[in-house]
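Here is this case:
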Amino acid sequence: MMHASTKKRDPASDKKSKKDMRRVFIAVHLPDPVIKTLAGIQQDLRQCGLQIRWTRPETIHLTLKFLGDVPAESIEALCDAVKTGVGDLAAFQLAAKGVGVFPGVRRPRVVWTGLSGQTDALERLHHAIDSAIFEMGFAKDDRRFTGHLTLGRFTGQSDPEALIDILKAFADKASDSFEADAVHVMQSDLKPSGPVYTVLSSIRLSSWGVNREPQKIN
């Protein structure tokens, strides 16, 4: 009688497999003045007594697409696909504005600041990237894209009514406008001190028709 044999997992092979993967996302970087504004909002929120683990201001970015683990040998093709997808899309103006929470005030997990300005152009950029990398096997987002900047993550419960009052008080907090003029394919390495980000590729957007004068966007 023959017995089915079980092939033992090779720890060395597992280690190699993990090393050959990259944790990848696609994002727009923020200029220093906007980062400074977000750090100020974080500081003001700290005074409200919320139990939050704050994102380091210098690591805050506008995520367009989180891809998770991607084989190292696919990175070049991924970057090429993103470059092709954004094509001749123009740069556009955004500003950070207001404060909100996901998924809601009763059980908040994430605190974020929203975006104002040319958000229709931001949606088009996201759609173009989503479509371009779909051909590589990456699933399209099944929800409407809502651009936001993560300020921190809740570590404890908050009183819903008090949280609503806080969000109302921060509704008009805003940064100066900034130009979203490039898309970056990023690698994220998780460290005990927090994530470390590495730029794998940067794709410039066209500067045609963009007002470069800093201004408030309502």
Remarks:
- The CA atoms of residues 8 and 14 lie 11 Å apart.
- The domain at 21-204 is CATH 3.90.1140.10 (Cyclic Phosphodiesterase; Chain: A,).
